Amino acid sequence: MKTFFKRTALLLLLNGLMAFDAYGQNKALSVDEVLAIFYQRNLDLIAAQYNIDQSQADAVIASAIPNPNFSFQLSELSGNLNNGASATGCSHNPGVSCGPAEYFSFSQLIEVAGKRGLRIQSSGFATQAAASDLQDAVRIFSNMVRDAYYELLQTQKNRWLAQEIVDHYQVIAKANQLRLHSGDISESDFLRVKMESVRAESDLDNAQTAVEQAKAKLAMLLRWPEQSLSFEAKEQWPTVKDLGQGLSREQLIAKALEQRPDLQADKLRAEQADKEMELARRLKYPDVTVTAGYARDPSNNALNSGFVGVSVPLPLFYQYKGEADKAAVQFSQSRLAVEQTELGIRQDVVGALATWHSTDKIVRRFQDGLLNDAVVVRNSAELAYSRGATSVLDFIEAQRSYKNVMRDYYSALINRANAYYDLAKAIGVEPTNDKASGQKAALGQQ
User: Fold this and answer.
1) What end-to-end distance do the CA atoms of the chain give, in Å?
2) Distances (CA, A) of 444 to 29, 83, 235, 401
3) What is the pLDDT along the chain (446 residues), one digit of tens a residue?
4) E strands along 112-204, which residues?
5) Residue 146: closest CA among 427, 423, 437, 422
6) Percentages helix, strand, coil for the chain, rounded to the nearest 5?
7) Stated pTM of the model
8) Contact 99/298 with Cβ under 8 angstroms?
9) Helix axes 249-259, 392-427, angle to 10 degrees
10) What DSSP string describes 396-430?
């Protein structure tokens, strides 16, 4: 699972960053390229946090068969070492030693009642649950990265808007200078426009600061602080695909319950707890240790002989009731966790779906005429002001209205993008931009 994510991230990174200049030139990165950087630099930490490697090691341990024991023993050590031993195979001469008694044995623990099989099944569920945890972590962290990416894009759009307004006021200021000298406008009107120009420059400074802060935030999330000033967000909006937006809430909830990795992980842990409970109940069935060996004992009638034996612990005083009760409690807790996660998924889907519909409608309202109206009002006010047909206050108000509408539009675009990805996260779908739309926001290329 971890290898799959890393290979995917590497492919995305190679496709998007072949031309990256590490010496300080800004590189416009798409959201997929930013995600690829995040996976490459953070996936090992995330996997370690969710114990992927440990769960795989636990599975190996659970499936292991107990090793046999070998023992060797010397006995009947004395001064004469069985001189003249009567055992068949020894010299019966009183002056000849037959040597000490030697015992070689092997013992093997044999688990009964299917305990090893239950451990294997339990560890298998644990490994699958850890993999689902990693999927869920990628689902959550991916949206964190996207949120930071679109926050940067929004600050960049606000900076572009602030720069456009500054440039616009500079043109107006030059024209007003000429009009002031010719007596077409009063000095107070000239100063009002000049103050608005200064205010626009302050807005541009603040917008630039916001961009740098958003870059730093995204770079820290990527664990890439050395490049925090060397990249910018590419203006690519998500290609909206059918995630089930047209389904009813109950149908969408059912889809999420089938796909959400956090719910899958909880269900797998419930299965694991069930196996652990059954394993705890079977601990009262004692395991058997079988022993077999070879003996060379001069004190016996036969010098060389073999032996076998069986040992079984007797659960007379304690029958592992505590372990069984503890496992039953853990099973109940795991089932409760499944129910709580299901309730959380229902809430996530309902909220995300409502937010998506709301943000999509808002963007459509802007694009259906409000943006064009703001431009028309501004241009009309400028034309009227240049001909002395309207007051400076009406001109300034038209400029402010245009700025506010554009800011609200950029915010609506970002909110819709985040709502789209939040809906995908709530359903448990990982959206991909096959060819992310390169369309600019309306009026964004002016």
Assistant:
1) 46
2) 18, 108, 10, 17
3) 545 444 444 444 444 443 344 334 578 888 889 988 888 887 766 776 667 778 888 888 888 899 999 999 988 777 678 777 788 888 787 778 888 888 999 999 999 999 999 999 999 999 899 889 888 888 888 899 999 999 999 999 999 999 988 888 888 887 777 777 777 777 887 788 888 888 889 999 999 999 999 999 998 888 887 766 678 898 888 888 888 888 888 999 999 999 999 999 999 999 999 999 999 999 999 999 999 999 988 888 888 889 999 999 988 888 889 989 999 999 999 999 999 999 999 999 999 999 999 999 999 999 888 888 888 888 888 788 777 777 778 888 888 888 889 999 999 999 999 999 999 999 998 886 543 333 333 323 33
4) none
5) 422
6) 65, 10, 25
7) 0.77
8) yes
9) 60
10) HHHHHHHHHHHHHHHHHHHHHHHHHHHHHHHHT--
Residue carrying structure tokens 């959400």: 260
Structure tokens at 205: 């400074």
Interatomic CA distance for residues 116 and 285, integer angstroms = 13
Q: How far apart are CA 434 and CA 440, in angstroms?
A: 18
Give the DSSP per-residue string, 237-261.
Answer: B-----SSTTS-HHHHHHHHHHH-H
Counting every residue written for the chain, the total comes to 446
Report how far residue 415's alpha carbon sits from residue 149's, in angstroms, rounded to the nearest whole number.
12
